[in-house]
Amino acid sequence: MQKIRLLDAKTINKIAAGEVVESPKSVVKELTENAIDANAGSVTIEIKEGGISYIRITDNGTGIPKEQVKEAFLRHATSKMSQIEDLEHIFTLGFRGEALASIAAVAQVEMLTKTRDEETGTRIVIHAGEIQELEDAACREGTSITVRNLFYNVPARRKFLKKPATESGYVSDLVNKIALGHPEVAIHYINNGNTVLHTAGNNDPKTAVFYVYGKDAANSMLPISYRKGEYAVSGLIGKPEFCRANRNYENLFINGRFIKNPVVSAAVEDAYKTKLLIGKFPVFVLNLAVEPAQVDVNVHPAKLEVRFKNDDEVYEFFYNAVAKALQETVLIPKAVLEK
Ligand code: ADP
Ligand code: MG
């Protein structure tokens, strides 16, 4: 057996990066979330070759002040929390301070950023965790970050990337979800030079559904808005006849964060139960607004799963919310008839 010793910082970063950055999709997710956290009203997402050779995310958000650009790339460096108690109040999508450090550890990264108050912006180039260039640069307010050749220095990881077409499919699914969850942000998605999606950013969920799923879907959605105790849900649910053969159209967001959660899925599906054919699943875009203290989002580095404080309460809440919305749509035509 070899002697026990502490790994050097570069090795630690590379290993840790594996948890946050798995594929082009996770890079796009982290960078787009950063843009949204920076209050961007529009975000452009460009990828080439499934994002393996090229990803660029451009936003018109706050930008990073010159003197903090270097810090932003340090592991566990974040402007979003300072102590563990902050997690109980956090409404930003990020908070772990790991994304930029992780991405820069396993790719070639270039960032241009400028705040409103600054005369000139900043350009930083980092390859495999090493700063190559750091200088003043002319650029627009906001941030643009380019990630080239993902995992070029981690061959073991690069080997596990799928074909560009497959990776590109994963990115597209993610971008669709972000667009549905954030109708207030205009999302422009360009894949290999072609615009695939360009949402309005008008804060109307139905318009977002129209851009992502098309006209039929948009016309088949019913609004839902329900509040009880500490929970409030809003969004759209599909009419029972507009059901799908899988769960891919089930979109749940908690305080704007896309989440997969079996309790919520079960509650919504149960509320539809008698209205859906066997083997069919509902289409929905639901955003739960809840005190951050009610959910633990820090279960997984990619933050795709959450733990609720009280699963039973959450089940009942969603079941009632959806059952009520579905019931109302049955009642409305009747009320109209009685007029
Ligand atoms: P986290 O999002 O968890 O804070 P990141 O590594 O993703 O960690 O980002 C580190 C910090 O860099 C953020 O806390 C934020 O202050 C800053 N930052 C990153 N991306 C942007 C952006 N697009 N616009 C403005 N600030 C950004
Ligand atoms: Mg982040």
Automatic annotation (TrEMBL):
Keyword Zinc: no
GO molecular function annotation: ATP binding; ATP hydrolysis activity; ATP-dependent DNA damage sensor activity; mismatched DNA binding
GO biological process: mismatch repair
Residues in coiled coil: none
Record's keyword terms, sorted: DNA damage, DNA repair
GO cellular component: mismatch repair complex
Residues in DNA mismatch repair protein S5 domain copies: 209-327
Protein's UniProt keywords contain DNA repair: yes
The family this protein is said to belong to: Belongs to the DNA mismatch repair MutL/HexB family.
Protein role: This protein is involved in the repair of mismatches in DNA. It is required for dam-dependent methyl-directed DNA mismatch repair. May act as a 'molecular matchmaker', a protein that promotes the formation of a stable complex between two or more DNA-binding proteins in an ATP-dependent manner without itself being part of a final effector complex.
Protein name: DNA mismatch repair protein MutL
Lineage per the UniProt record: Bacteria, Bacillati, Bacillota, Clostridia, Lachnospirales
